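[Protein data]
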Amino acid sequence: MKVNLLFLSVLIPVFTVSCAVSNNGQTVKQGIRGRVTLEEGNRMPGPGQSASVPKGVKRDILIYAVTTAAQAEGQRPLFTRISTKLAARVKSDSTGYFQCSLKAGRYSVLTAEEEGKLFSNLSNEKDELSPVEVKPDSVSTCNIVVNYKAVY
């Protein structure tokens, strides 16, 4: 019995460590990957001032079928509701890194913020919110700068 407990006490930690995969190693074959960074406070350049380097942050990332501003409720850049289909939900790690396997197609990528708000500060000429296209057998990069508390 003592031998089994000793064996388990050694095996479980080794097994846990061997199963840990760093998010910085790309494991998806088709989908998106990127980094979520946070910028807040005064970002204006000035004499004797330098803006801090944006830091990676943990966030829930919600990936919807491509969504236009007309299909969202709220005021930019924070939305209260998205009416298109939620395709996936992932979390970034403590460095802000995330990745997600997705079918080929067009998506809108938003972050979950305080009070249930959804953040998107980007749009294209079609007014699609934070659009990204996933092509067959490729991984698209989607970096997100959460900056609604920053002043430029």
